[in-house]
Known about the structure:
- The protein folds into two domains: 146 residues, D-Maltodextrin-Binding Protein, domain 2, CATH 3.40.190.10; 93 residues, Periplasmic binding protein-like II (D-Maltodextrin-Binding Protein, domain 2).
- 33% of the residues are buried.
- The protein is α/β, with parallel strands linked by helices.
- Strand 1, helix 2 and strand 2 form a beta-alpha-beta unit.
- The chain contains eight helices and twelve strands.
- The chain has a five-stranded mixed β-sheet with strand order 7-6-8-5-9.
- It is globular, with a radius of gyration of 22 Å.
Amino acid sequence: MRPGHRWRHGLVAWAFWGAGLAQACTLTMGYRPEARPPLMAEAPDDSGVYLELFTRAAKRIGCDLRVERLPKLRMIEALKRGEVDFYPGMDFDDERNTYLLFMSNGLPGGLVGVSRPDLPEVTHLRQLAGRRLLRNPGQPQYLEDLTEAERAAIPIEKVVSASLQRGVEMLLRERGDFYVYSQLSVDHLLRMRPEWRSQLKVHRRCCGGDSRYHAAFAKASPHMRLEPNPHFRSDQPEGADNQRVRAAPGSVAQRFAQALERMTKAGEVQQLLEAAKGPAD
């Protein structure tokens, strides 16, 4: 082989190898060890809607998906450091906004309250004065919008596990009076445990109503590049749909968000959710 040809051959091989490295991509999705059916099974089983949805979204942008299961508070620290790239479903709050960027995951969102049947209908959390609100360590401070006096009137009972079932069991043992949780998870639990329907009451107007659900991408992730959000409305409160920054075009995080959006518009996310529902009793 002529020297020039060997040089060109080597250059082509190096370019191909380098392009392969540039395209290599693994996204780490973090989640707590507890189950949240139908979204994810209990560790070490990662099966569920989340695994299928985000594996497909990652594959669409040339990435693999890795799952890391950690207790919620340790997961938060890993997200802050960028050691975990994203959490599949999380509610916006001001503290999380400092280290996470929120992007729609296409799943139906919204929070509801769960209580025993004797509690009158709750349409605002200030009505819980004198009632014990259950809260697990990874949940937002749902009482932030209340006055100091209103917050003081609602005692908080700690739920050690983030499992919805654990909170429901505490309600049934009268160790708490009200638990705020995802509507999707509450509806699925009552579908699978019909014997609890007469023992529980779902308060659907307590906590903001229906909303879009969001994945939360670590701002410190190596797959994230941030830029000012030109669509930010300074005259509106910050929230998951009104953030000061966004993922820069071309970044892995931005392409990942686009893949999720395309899957949502095509109806693929809803199909995954419907397929995961258990049979009606």
